[in-house]
Design a protein that fits this description.
Elements: H1 8-22, E1 31-33, E2 42-46, E3 52-56, H2 79-90, E4 97-101, E5 106-109, H3 117-124, H4 126-146, H5 159-177, H6 184-201, E6 206-209, E7 218-221, E8 224-227, E9 234-237, H7 240-246, H8 255-272, H9 279-308, H10 317-331, H11 335-344
């Protein structure tokens, strides 16, 4: 088997050759490489009116983009393929997989168009669209919880992974971007505070989560919501996806709108997903998870810039840290963490 060329020209050549063999009805001369985002996976739209999307994967066996993910040796066992199969059986609308080209490491999937959820929300009304999104998320979580065990439920987003994401913030936001040289005393205190946060997060009931359920991973196709980029789906804190969605990097909700949506989400989880009848308990889980997830995002955006040469996420760091500030102030707990972060990171305000 020839070596996999994952340069842009190599991807186009692989996709064209794959189309000739696996999707001969498509016009393989029409290949439009889509913009690169955070993932190592690259996408291309192939064909004219009846287009399909080719997903080109990097060489086999490499380390994945996120903690806990590894690029598969065979595409038949790729996490995207396995998660797609499980989610589809669970009744979650995901893109169809049409063909697998093992030789060239190309997956052929349904073309969902270009209607990103946040773009639709801006056109058609933020609160109404996000209300629909919240209901979709609760319904998705309900379906995933009721589904039989399988690939997705065999993986777990545990305390070690939660802590890795916090350390990612320290390494890339504090040390790399801000140039903070943590004195040993501060490092010890921060580590202890992170341990305490992870301990609280570990008490949140675990349910199946998408892991990156945000507006750019939700498409609107003929009025229907469809989930993409689900290859890291696993068991994890029940509110993780809600935080990713309502504390999105791409669209900042107005405070009053956010509060109404959060109340709807917390009530929905109480009704069908969590073993509690107290929305206030779910709200506290949400705030705790916001601190962890958005610190991780701030570090991740710097990592993507410095390591992958993609600065497009850097403009979202301030909003991510603003979410952290608000969550810490609202919680009333983890005060030592709030005070220390405010000393170390100018983007965090804690009073």
């Amino acid at each position: 088997m020839a070596a996999i060329d994952h340069s842009e020209s190599g991807i186009v050549a692989r996709v064209r050759a794959s189309a000739q063999q696996h999707r001969p009805a498509l016009d393989e001369t029409t290949v439009r490489l889509l913009p690169q985002h955070a993932s190592l996976r690259r996408y291309a739209r192939v064909g004219g009116a009846a287009a399909e999307v080719a997903m080109a994967l990097p060489p086999a066996g490499g380390v994945g983009d996120e903690k806990g993910s590894v690029e598969s040796v065979t595409l038949a066992e790729d996490t995207f393929v396995l998660a797609q199969r499980w989610l589809s059986k669970a009744g979650v609308r995901v893109p169809e997989v049409f063909a697998i080209d093992e030789e060239r490491r190309v997956l052929w999937v349904e073309d969902l168009g270009e209607a990103l959820f946040d773009d639709v929300a801006r056109r058609e009304g933020v609160e109404a669209t996000y209300t629909r999104g919240v209901d979709f998320l609760v319904e998705m979580q309900t379906r995933m919880q009721a589904a039989p065990p399988g690939f997705v439920t065999s993986r777990r987003f545990d305390a070690g992974m939660l802590r890795w994401e916090l350390d990612h913030y320290v390494e890339w936001r504090l040390e790399e971007q801000l140039g903070v040289a943590l004195p040993e005393g501060h490092r010890t205190t921060l580590s202890r505070c992170f341990d305490a946060l992870v301990e609280d997060l570990a008490r949140i009931p675990q349910r199946v989560m998408h892991r990156d359920f945000q507006s750019h991973n939700l498409m609107v196709v003929d009025g229907e919501l469809v989930v993409i980029d689900f290859q890291d789906a696993m068991m994890g804190p029940a509110v993780y996806d809600g935080v990713a969605f309502l504390r999105d990097s791409y669209l900042v909700l107005e405070p009053a709108v956010f509060e109404r949506l959060l109340s709807r989400y917390c009530s929905g989880l109480c009704d069908v997903v969590l073993d509690t009848s107290a929305p206030d308990e779910v709200r506290e889980m949400f705030l705790l998870q916001t601190v962890q997830r958005k610190l991780k995002d701030a570090g991740r955006f710097v990592y993507i810039d410095r390591v992958k040469g993609n600065p497009s996420f850097m403009g979202y760091i301030d909003d991510s840290l603003s979410y952290v500030s608000r969550a810490l102030r609202t919680l009333g707990t983890h005060r030592e963490l709030g005070r220390l972060l405010a000393q170390l990171d100018a983007g965090i305000v804690y009073e």
